[in-house]
């Protein structure tokens, strides 16, 4: 796989200024923007719906990576697709008929991703792997930014990379939660293709420099 993709999450932005957050992400040179959708049911927090994505869409050419942390994700797919999402990931824990939903997302012309929480093993994805464009491995329990990465979850990243190699699958592997200067080397080494970053990005004074550090282009731990 080529260079690691860094996807800053607007979850850690100032919610009174999402447009400014998108400008900051674009100005830093990040190719993806991660949009965390929470419903107060699947996770104990609430964020935003498709209207925000629609309103941000004209402001940026970045790849809009929507992460649904919601119950009943099937009820939201059409609206997020119409709003301008480029990829929609949903949690396998939240929906039984995951294969059907992956196919529906693809029929809408979008990339289809599966997400798993820390307690879900890779074997739970079994038959779904060939149908996903991305597997998003959560390395914190979803709901809030600024938590500490659970190192054991990186074993799942290794397993997903190995399975992809053995079976010639094509999914990207994304890691979400607690990715920062200190943890990013281990995350890349485990085999992640996409690094989601919320708090580390919005706290960084020099954002382009942080992106390079997360990509492994700067070898130091300068804060
Ligand atoms: C957590 C979200 C993450 C979050 C990551 O539930 O899915 O995308 O924004 O934030 P940090 O990087 O602060 O852990
Ligand atoms: Zn996320």
Structure notes:
By secondary structure, the protein is of the alpha/beta class. The protein has one domain: TIM Barrel. About 30% of the residues lie in helices and about 20% in strands. It is built from 8 helices and 8 strands; from the N terminus they run βαβαβαβαββαβαβαα. It has helices at about 20-30, 50-55, 75-85, 100-105, 155-165, 185-190, 200-205, 205-215; strands spanning about 5-10, 30-40, 65-70, 85-90, 110-115, 135-140, 170-175, 195. The protein has an 8-stranded parallel sheet with strand order 1-8-7-6-5-4-3-2. The longest helix is centred in the last third of the chain and has 14 residues, at about 155-165. The protein is globular, with a radius of gyration of 16 Å. The mean pLDDT is about 95. The structure holds D-xylitol-5-phosphate and zinc ion. D-xylitol-5-phosphate binds near residues 12, 34 and 142. Zinc ion binds near residues 9, 34, 67, 176 and 196.
The SSE string, one letter per element, is EHEHEHEHEEHEHEHH
| Shape, principal axes of CA atoms | globular
How many beta-strand segments? 8
Bound molecules: D-xylitol-5-phosphate, zinc ion
How many individual helices?
A: 8
- For the record, the CATH class is Alpha Beta
* CATH homologous superfamily assignment: Aldolase class I
The CATH topology name reads TIM Barrel
Task: Name the poorly predicted regions.
Answer: none
Main sheet record: 8 strands, parallel
Distance between the termini: 28 Å
Counting structural domains, the number is 1
């Amino acid at each position: 796989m080529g260079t690691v993709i860094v996807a800053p999450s607007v979850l850690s932005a100032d919610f009174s200024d999402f447009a400014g957050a998108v400008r900051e992400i674009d100005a830093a040179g990040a190719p993806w923007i991660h949009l965390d959708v929470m419903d107060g049911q699947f996770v104990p927090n609430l964020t935003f719906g498709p209207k925000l994505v629609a309103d941000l869409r004209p402001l940026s050419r970045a790849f809009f990576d929507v992460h649904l942390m919601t119950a009943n994700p099937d009820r939201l797919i059409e609206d997020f697709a119409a709003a301008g999402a480029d990829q929609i990931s949903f949690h396998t824990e939240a929906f039984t008929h995951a294969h059907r939903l992956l196919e529906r997302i693809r029929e809408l012309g979008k990339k289809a991703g599966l997400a798993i929480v820390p307690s879900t093993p890779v074997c739970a994805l079994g038959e779904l792997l060939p149908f996903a464009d991305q597997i998003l491995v959560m390395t914190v329990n979803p709901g809030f930014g600024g938590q500490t990465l659970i190192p054991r979850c990186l074993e799942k990243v290794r397993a997903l990379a190995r399975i992809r190699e053995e079976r010639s699958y094509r999914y990207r592997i994304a890691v979400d939660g607690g990715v920062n200067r200190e943890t990013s080397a281990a995350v890349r080494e485990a085999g992640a293709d996409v690094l989601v970053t919320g708090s580390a990005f919005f706290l960084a004074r020099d954002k382009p420099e942080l992106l390079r550090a997360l990509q492994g282009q700067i070898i130091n731990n300068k804060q």
